Amino acid sequence: MSAGYTKAILALGSNLGERNDTLTTAVADLVDPAEVRLLGVSPVVQTKAVGGPEGQPDFLNMVMAIETTLAPLELLAHCHAVEQKHLRTREVRWGPRTLDVDIIVYGNVESDDPVLTIPHPRAAERAFVLYPWSLLEPNAQLGGKSVAELAAVAADMPDIRRFDGYGDVAGVPATGAVE
User: Which one of 8, 88, 101, 175 counts the least CB within 10 Å of its CB?
Assistant: First the structure.
């Protein structure tokens, strides 16, 4: 990691519109300013919606590792600006969305701030975050535990599928997900 930069893990999800294109463009948007540098991206996975209203389209989810000179709340504001660029609305908690960007960890920072809790308060229970993160960083830890081990026991792990990246039209993969 570069001097003056802090490593962070961001989780991205989309279940409306051209999901795969949204994630691809969002990665570029997130690392557009000089204060944010890309370290790596995970493969994309397809998942059922966790929480929120019933009957939502499946999500595409991924994780990216960055390093940044932005403070945590500045990074949060940047993530929200990227969500807005992709027409994110916040009408229903955990409802369908074009783009969701969450800060999972920010260096070794721990914060109970209601605006930004770090590490993300539900990340250790969500395979849709943990599994792609384990593919990106096999030795990653969260709360002193392996993210791969946490993913393996997460309630939503059976619903995770690797996404092949083809045929994603309006949130419905024409060719299906691949194992």
Answer: 175
- Helices 19-30 and 72-85: angle between axes, nearest 10 degrees: 140
pLDDT in tens, 118-169: 999 899 999 999 999 999 999 999 999 999 999 999 999 999 998 876 655 4
Q: How confident is the model at residue 61 (pLDDT cuts 50, 70, 90)?
A: very high
Tell me which amino acid residue 121 is: P
State how far the Cα of 9 lies from the Cα of 17, in Å rounded to an integer. Answer: 24
88 is catalytic: yes
- Among 60, 70, 76, residue whose Cα is nearest residue 176: 60
DSSP 166: S
| 97 is a catalytic site residue | yes
Marked catalytic residue, from 29, 58, 102, 168: 102
- The mean pLDDT value for 90-95 works out to 63
161 is an active site residue: no
DSSP letters of 131-152?
HHHHHH-TT-EETTEEHHHHHH
Q: Which one of the listed residues 19, 29, 58, 97 is annotated catalytic?
A: 97
